[in-house]
Amino acid sequence: MIRTMIVDDDALVRLGLADLLDGDPGIEVVAQASDGLKAIDQATAHRIDVALVDVRMPRMDGITATARLRALPHPPKVITLTTFDLDEYVYNALAAGADGFLLKDTDPDEILRAVHLVAAGSAMLHPFAARRLIDRYHAANQPEATGAKARLDRLTPREREVLALLAHGDTNADIAARLAMRESTVKAHVSRVLTALEVTNRVQAALLARDAGLTA
């Protein structure tokens, strides 16, 4: 059972998401919060596996809340909720440790899929916005391309292959099938990649890979 928390200042959004998530037999909504400060309190009081966090909220915004949640002793995974015209905030959310983001008009089935994927250790980027966001991130960080390439030089050839597939959005199971290895071996490679690149999650690793030109 995936224990989730919904963080949004709109009560109707919280209600709709709660109804959706509770309708999945593998997901349970154990906490809700109307702002970042309350989210920290709820995450401290409850064991949360995945938190869905809005970007714009009073008192403490979703970006700050994401960083605070990820710094807890038992940090939940975080999926940032946003609208497309707020995509500049997503970069900061990813840097704060979010494992992905969804647009608020995302198909309900995709929201459920995202919760399951993130809980399992994968990342989830909205399919229609991911490329635009990554392209903008890459363009904004062109001066850092040399540094990114140097960090990729720390990887073995096999780890670079794993990173390239990860950057394309493949799950551990997908990578295992493509590279003919066990999923447990892929998990070990991913862990070493994150450590070598000095990033905290798969999204940051994928952005770094694209910044270095490893993937198109």
Automatic annotation (TrEMBL):
Gene3D superfamilies: 3.40.50.2300
InterPro entries the UniProt entry points to: CheY-like_superfamily, NreC/VraR/RcsB-like_REC, Sig_transdc_resp-reg_C-effctor, Sig_transdc_resp-reg_receiver, Tscrpt_reg_LuxR_C, WalR-like
Entry-linked SMART domains: HTH_LUXR (SM00421), REC (SM00448)
PTM-bearing positions, type 4-aspartylphosphate: 54
Source taxon at top rank: Bacteria
Presence of the UniProt keyword S-adenosyl-L-methionine in the record: no
This protein's name: DNA-binding NarL/FixJ family response regulator
Species this protein is from: Streptomyces pseudovenezuelae
